[in-house]
Amino acid sequence: MVEFKLPETRYAQSGDVSIAYQVMGDGPIDMILVPGVFSHIEFQHEMTGFTAFMRRLAAYARVVTFDKRGQGLSDRISGAPTLEERMDDVRAVMDAIGSKRAVVIGFSEGGCMSALFAATYPERVSHLVLIGCFARAADRSPDDVWQSRVDQIMTSFGNGEAIKTVAPSEAAKPGAIELFAKFERLSSSPGAFRTIMQLNRKIDVTAVLPTLQVPTLVLHSKTDIQVPVEMGRKLAAAIPKATLIEYPTGDHYVWLGDIEAKHGDIEEFVTGHRDGASAELDRVLATVLFTDIVDSTRSAAAMGDQRWRRKLDDHDQLAQQLVGRHRGNLVKSIGDGLLATFDGPGRAVRCRRGDRADRVWRIGRLLDKVSLQLGPQDIPPEYLV
């Protein structure tokens, strides 16, 4: 099992503003990922699929994520930054890591700034990848509809309702809305978010797109609620020689949906081939949590079959809730225990270790004692019982 540690957060100076960034991988290709309207480079690793997505890119590249000024861990600022100021932040991060040329990957409204950066500094961009993006924000809805939408968003800001449009496939999972609510709050304050939305409404890079000289790949899900696929088609049509790939399913967030196809398309576009190393990476990423009820035979005999069966049903129901809350996958119940998998050891440990009001060890209170084993083997022994 390959040991994995989350990347450290560092800071680059863009004028008087500190820009938070992280680096994963040490491949020969530099990739700069430009986020959308929500961003927090540390907390994003709590989001389902994000770390796995990043690690897949880091298998062949040096991948950089950052929080734009005013968001996440970067400096808060008064007012809303222009696209030109955001471009300076990308340049500052590249300079900080010593990157002369990189693949720039823009998500959602971050794609507009990415396109502007590529047009302004073509010598610093080898490839441009635009995912779930648009050319002109006003095309998304008429002014009256947009204003109503802003009012609705601000009323519910910080309660996680936005997940229903950016990641609807996750919305029904236990704890997903609460998790996204925290992501919203960590990304920016309500007032700052309103200012950003008002600025983003003015985004229009239509005149910039025909001037792009770098190879460009446009990826879009046909079921994207946040940015309809028609906008991705219009974007691609305006860029000379751009390649457009549409996926039949998927959320607005790139790390959800048909991940294998997206990774293959990005890697082939950037390197000219598909590595197909997903199976090995999946084995590295999987963390197994196994619980077993100690002395279950004796307990069953002491309680009687009916009472024991009720206890087991309670066990299974609680296990499903708690594993789901930590974004794990309950593979199966195995009579007097369970088998679950997680994206990484951190979530499995937190599922077992955290607050006594709602963690997996409560199962032990139902059944006297639970024996827990976790992989990989390098998890500290004090986390194991």
Quick tags:
single chain; 385 residues; alpha/beta; Alpha-Beta Plaits; 8-stranded mixed sheet; 4-stranded antiparallel sheet; 12 strands; 40% helix; 19% strand; disordered C terminus
Helix content: 40-55%
CATH architecture of the largest domain: 3-Layer(aba) Sandwich
The count of β-strands is 12
What gap, in angstroms, lies between the N and C termini? 21 Å
Beta content: 15-25%
Largest sheet: 8 strands, mixed
Which CATH class of the largest domain is shown? Alpha Beta
Number of domains: 2
Count of helical regions: 15
Strands of the widest sheet, in order across it, are: 1-2-4-3-5-6-7-8
List SSEs in N-to-C order: EEEHEHEHEHHHHHEHEHHEHHEEHHE
Q: Which residues form runs of ≥5 with pLDDT under 50?
A: 278-285, 354-385
Shape: globular
> What value does the average pLDDT take?
82
CATH homologous superfamily caption of the largest domain: Alpha/Beta hydrolase fold, catalytic domain
What does this structure look like?
The radius of gyration is 23 Å and the shape is globular. The protein contains 15 helices and twelve strands. Helix 2 (83-96) packs across helix 3 (110-120) and helix 12 (296-303) packs across helix 13 (305-325). The strands form two sheets. The chain has an eight-stranded mixed β-sheet with strand order 1-2-4-3-5-6-7-8, sandwiched between helices. The chain has a four-stranded antiparallel β-sheet with strand order 10-11-9-12. It has helices at 50-58, 83-96, 110-120, 143-156, 163-166, 168-171, 176-187, 190-201, 229-237, 259-271, 278-285, 296-303, 305-325, 345-353, 362-367; strands spanning 9-14, 17-24, 29-34, 61-66, 102-107, 125-131, 216-221, 243-247, 287-293, 329-333, 337-342, 370-374. The two termini are 21 Å apart. 40% of the residues lie in helices and 19% in strands. Mean pLDDT is 82; it is low at 278-285 and 354-385. The chain folds into two domains: 9-280, Alpha/Beta hydrolase fold, catalytic domain (Rossmann fold, 3-Layer(aba) Sandwich); 287-383, Alpha-Beta Plaits, CATH 3.30.70. Strand 7 (216-221), helix 9 and strand 8 form a beta-alpha-beta unit. It is an alpha/beta fold.
